[in-house]
Amino acid sequence: MEEKVAKTPKLADPIESSIDLATQEMIKRAQELGVETVFDRAVAMKPCNIGIQGICCKNCAMGPCRLPLPKDGVKGEDTRKGLCGATPNTIAARNFARMVAGGASAHSDHGRCVAEVFLAVARKESHDYQIKDPVKLLAVAPHLGVATKVEVDGQKVDRNLDEIALEVAEKALNEWGKSEGELLYLKRAPQPLYEKWKKYGVLPRNIDREVVEIMHRTHMGVDQDYKNIVKQCTRASLADGWGGSMLATDLQDILFGTPSPLQSEANLGVMKQDHVNIIVHGHEPVLSEMIVAATQSKEMVDYAKTKGAKGIQLAGICCTANEILQRHGIPTAATFLQQELAIITGACDAMVVDIQCIFQNLANVAKCFHTKLITTHPIARMEQNNVIHIEFNEHHAMEDAKRIVKMAIDNFQNRKAEVMIPRHKATQIAGFGVESIEYHLGGTFRGSYYTLNDNIINGRIRGIAGVVGCNNARTKHNEQHITIIKELIKNDVIVLTTGCSAIAAAMHGLLTPETAQVYCGPGLAEVCETVGIPPILHLGSCVDNSRILLAATEVVKAGGLGKDICDLPAAGSAPEWMSEKAISIGHYFVTSGVYTVFGYHLPLDGAPVLQDYLYKDMQKMYGGMWDCEEDPVKHAHKMIAHIDRKRKELGIDKARERVLMDMADRQKLEMM
């Protein structure tokens, strides 16, 4: 009998896997050590050809029903159907809707957690947190119907901050499950956009209800009209973007401080061999804020020195990284795809994870090294027995944080593999937001978005692009993000970025004011030099995409560029998306009036009628629409072409001398 020969596993080519040198080095090191990473798994396992088209239905036990698109496309009537008779459009719409539900759930449940902590702080039940930005509290309160002044003896006087905080907390938490009405933050949108939502019947009622209704509608035998299913997608995604995510951002700013520009570093090279290295990874900043405070305390630093370390180096991965970067300048170690590589350096003494985007394989990698892998959230545990679970409780937050930091310090002397930290890292300027952009454009006394609008009108800035989202192991790590961003700024388009896209831009040295002179067109370069900002503004984590919505709203309010978000010379992009959150984000941007292009693919190819509906018909309703383009240069130029169309519609498509316009001038321009 012939002896079977074991096949050599396929391994990723480091250079073909990433454009980042640190990542290439660590993939090679992992392979030399025999440690499997996501890059190797992506080579060994190919995606399902039918699932990628969005036409595999698993919603009942008669399936899965797979409806592959004929090689020559659909000619005439499309007769494909599942056992129950579900058409490709119904199946693809249900799958798309369930992705929206998953994404909206993830971001909005994050928001709920923050709201619960905020309520505990307002009730004086948690003493480790405090309100760090009372100005933001007073700004947010009216949007939740909370009065900031009371009448005393016929005069308006300031209301007690503790009373305001408690009412804001109660009103905010009520948005997840109130029994009647609509989400309060919807009125923050430009009036014409709100009226569109009202006209099409998509005003979200409460956050939880919209997600539950998607799951009900997509159950076998319920909603079988793809347009009606997409309508509920819109409600749920708006509940995310203008509800759960926006509330999360606002409440985090009030509790932890509103970000302002600061300098830091990015990439695996931020780790230090002679320090205790702690990596925080995930998306909720409730614990990471306490980890920051604990690692900076004299008690913990002194304890680290007793173990032979020179200090404690804290760094982050994914959106937890962005949260602590934005507020404290903590360096960013890695994007989503690099998370295993941080352990493979041999220098990671503890990786502390909370929720979302966390590889279960981290536990297998940690077994090969000394790293303590610590889960902290009740809804996010791992089955492997080498994972430590320390459930975080906001009522004794600092106690939990110090326990985790002490565990990492005690582990410093247990390093068993040769430490190899890549030397690659880059300087970044981060910490931008709606408020800080306004300040940079005009200072404390003259801050407004008028300056931005004037420079768009006079042509120095061609338009605005939001470039956001994940990495995807089916694409070359960081390549699409960086290529698209460089192409946009070369053509005088200012970029707002969040999430792993922001981290990628930082790693490749694009988040500094000096970037403008190297990569930008002359108009954008001039503006950046004058104002002193990078051409790519880091606005924070994925929930902070709500900052982009509000920045767009401020541009509309400043005048001269139309009356709705869909009028702006602006476009959105998610070059290397991979998660359900990205679909929810994309859909709330589309239905807020933004032309939105995704890279890699969208799971719609098997249902061309549904695809046309999302790619074309949505624009007639909301002014925004979906699109998809895998080629990064073509992707960028689709966005630029849309921006140019909007400039032409506004009558600002020809270059002109810069004229600082007052409101009367803008109003005349809008009437032209």
Question: What is this entry, summarized?
Answer:
By secondary structure, the chain is α/β, with parallel strands linked by helices.
Measured between the Cα atoms of the first and last residue, the distance is: 86 Å
- Gyration radius (Cα, Å) is 25 Å
| Biggest pleated sheet | 6 strands, parallel
Structural class by secondary-structure content: alpha/beta
CATH class of the largest domain: Alpha Beta
Number of strands: 18
Task: Write down the overall mean pLDDT.
Answer: 94
Number of helices: 26
Helix content: 40-55%
Poorly predicted runs: 1-6
Q: How many independent structural domains?
A: 3
Just name the CATH architecture of the largest domain: 3-Layer(aba) Sandwich
CATH fold topology of the largest domain: Rossmann fold
Which percent band covers the strand fraction? Answer: 5-15%
Strand order of the largest sheet: 8-7-6-9-10-11
Could you say which overall geometry the principal axes of the C-alpha atoms support? Answer: globular
Describe the structure.
The protein starts with 13 loop residues before the first helix and ends with a helix. It has 672 residues and is an alpha/beta fold. Helix 18 links the parallel strand 13 and strand 14. The protein is 47% helix and 11% strand. The protein has 3 domains: 88-256, Substrate Binding Domain Of Dnak, Chain:A, Domain 2 (Up-down Bundle), CATH 1.20.1270.30; 268-414, Rossmann fold (3-Layer(aba) Sandwich), CATH 3.40.50.2030; 426-671, Rossmann fold.
